[in-house]
Amino acid sequence: MTISIAHLGPPGTYAEQAAVFYVNWLTEKTGIEAILCPYPSIAQSLQAVAARHTQLAVVPVENSIEGSVTMTMDTLWQLDNLQIQLALVMPIAHAFISCANSLDGIKTVYSHPQALAQCQGWLEQFLPTVQLIPTNSTTEALQRLEQELTTAAIASSRAAQLYKLPILASNINDYPENCTRFWVVSQKEAQTFDHTPSIHATHTSLAFSVPANLPGALVKLLQVFAQLEINLSRIESRPTKRSLGEYLFFIDMEADASEARVQSALAELKIHTEVLKILGAYNVLSINAV
Amino acid sequence: MTISIAHLGPPGTYAEQAAVFYVNWLTEKTGIEAILCPYPSIAQSLQAVAARHTQLAVVPVENSIEGSVTMTMDTLWQLDNLQIQLALVMPIAHAFISCANSLDGIKTVYSHPQALAQCQGWLEQFLPTVQLIPTNSTTEALQRLEQELTTAAIASSRAAQLYKLPILASNINDYPENCTRFWVVSQKEAQTFDHTPSIHATHTSLAFSVPANLPGALVKLLQVFAQLEINLSRIESRPTKRSLGEYLFFIDMEADASEARVQSALAELKIHTEVLKILGAYNVLSINAV
C-alpha cells in the first residue's frame, strides 16, 4: 500500500523534514509506503487532503519561540472534513547558508519570517546592518541565493545538503530549546494509518465560536473544563473575521475524546457555543534531533 | 509643547496613518504638537520609547481578520517601563497600486504579509497565477514597484497619493469590516498627554506567566475574573520561548484598574502567577474612515 502526503514545499522545508520522519516511522511500523507531495502553501496542503488529492498532510501548528501558525488554524476552521491523526514534535536548528567565505560583506539575508524571527538576536549581534527579506518558505530563501557573495539564507542544514550549498554557521537560533509541533491530518472518515486504534489518545483538540457580543463567555466555557478536572495544554484565540473583538477559540485538552468526562464537557459546550468542531484525538510522537 | 511619536515607517504605513490621526486629535484637543519618527520595525518603535528617544509610540495590536500582531505583544512583555495610554480603532481599506493600465500582465504583487493575507480571495479571483512577495511594510512594497508594467503593490490609497502612484482597484480586502486596533504607548511614569486623567478607563490590559508544568492554571486564573464579574474582551497566549507548551497570557478586561473588583482580581492573580504586568488602563478612540 502506498499513500500520498502533502506538505509545504519545495523539498527542504521543516514540514518536509517532519513528513520524511513520519514516513520512515510509518513504513518501519506497518510496511505502508508513502510519496511526498510538496504544495506552495500550508493552506493548499490541507486543501489537498480535503479534496482527496492526497490521503494526509503534515502541517506546522506551533513553534516554541514564535507561537501559533495562524494559517493552519484558520484553514482547519474553514474546512469541514479533516481530522488530526497524530502530533509530531521536532527540534529546530537553523543554519546560516551562503556561498561567501565569511560573514563580512553579507548584505542581504533571505528566510521565512518565522525563521528570521527565531534568529533575530544572532543577526543583530553578527550582522546588525544587514537587510532581512522574508520568503514564503526556508527553501525558497535558498533558491534566492545567488552565486554572488553578498547574500545568505537561513534554513535547515539538511536543506543546505539537499541543494549542495555551504553552511557558514550552525545552530544560530536565539533559543536552543526551539521546537515545532506538527499535526498529521487526514479526512474525517479515514482509517488511522499507524494501525493503533486510539485505545487511549493523550490529547483531544477542539475549536469553537461563541455568540457575538458575549464577553465573559469564554470564562464560563473554561469553567466546564475546570469542574470536570480536564487539563488544558493550550488555548489560542483567532479572529472570526466578522468584526474586531469576536473570536474563535482553539483548545488542546490532555484527555481522550472517548472519556466520560470529555463527553460531559462536549455536551455542555454544545449548549454555549455557536459552532463546535472536534479536530481530533491523537497521541504525540517526539522526533529526535536530526 | 512638541512631543515625538515613533511608528513603523516609512511614511505611508497604516501605523503612520493612525499616528497622524492621533496627532490631529491631540493638537485640536490640547494644543500639543507632535513630530512623527518612522522606525524600520514595530519592536524598534517601542524600544525608542523605552530608551526615551521618543515620548510615544503608536503600534498595531490586532487586526480583525489576521489577528494579533505578535511582535507588539512580545516586545511589550520584554520591555519594563512602558504603559498603554489609549487604544485607536481604524478601518483598513487596501488599494491595488500599479503603473500598469490593467490587471492583465501583472506577474508580481508586493505587500506586507498581513495585507496579502487580507486580500487573498481577491487575488485568487483576479490574479490566480501571480507571484506574491512579502515585504516588511506596505510602504516598502510601493518602493519595490518599478516603472515596468508587470509589478503591483497592496497598500492604502493614502500611501498611493503620498508616493504619487496610480490606484488600479480600491477596497480590495476580502472582508469589508476590516479594522486594526493600535495602542498609543508611553513611558510608565509619563503624564497622559490628552489631559483627561483616567477617571474611568474602559479597558485594562494585563500580561502574566504561570509557573511551568501547571496545566489548568489558566482556568483557575480565569475563574478569578468570572467570580468578580469582570468581562474579558480578549485573551491571547504567546509562547514563553523556554519550552513548547509554556505560555504567557495577555488579557484585556472591560474595567478600570482602579475599581475595587479589579484590585481584588490583581491581588489574587499575584499569588498564582510567576510574573504579572499591568500594561495600562485606557479608553478607546474610533477613527472614522479616512
Automatic annotation (TrEMBL), chains A, B:
Gene Ontology cellular component terms for the protein in this record: cytoplasm
Keywords recorded for this protein, A-Z: Amino-acid biosynthesis, Aromatic amino acid biosynthesis, Lyase, Phenylalanine biosynthesis
Protein name per Swiss-Prot or TrEMBL: Prephenate dehydratase
UniProt cross-references to SUPFAM superfamilies, sorted A to Z: ACT-like, Periplasmic binding protein-like II
Lineage of the organism: Bacteria, Bacillati, Cyanobacteriota, Cyanophyceae, Nostocales
Species this chain originates from: Atlanticothrix silvestris CENA357
GO terms of molecular function: prephenate dehydratase activity
Keyword flag Amino-acid biosynthesis: yes
Location of the Prephenate dehydratase domain: 4-187
EC numbers for this chain: 4.2.1.51
GO biological process: L-phenylalanine biosynthetic process
Reactions catalysed, as given in the entry: prephenate + H(+) = 3-phenylpyruvate + CO2 + H2O
Pfam family, one: ACT
Domain (ACT): residue spans on this chain: 206-283
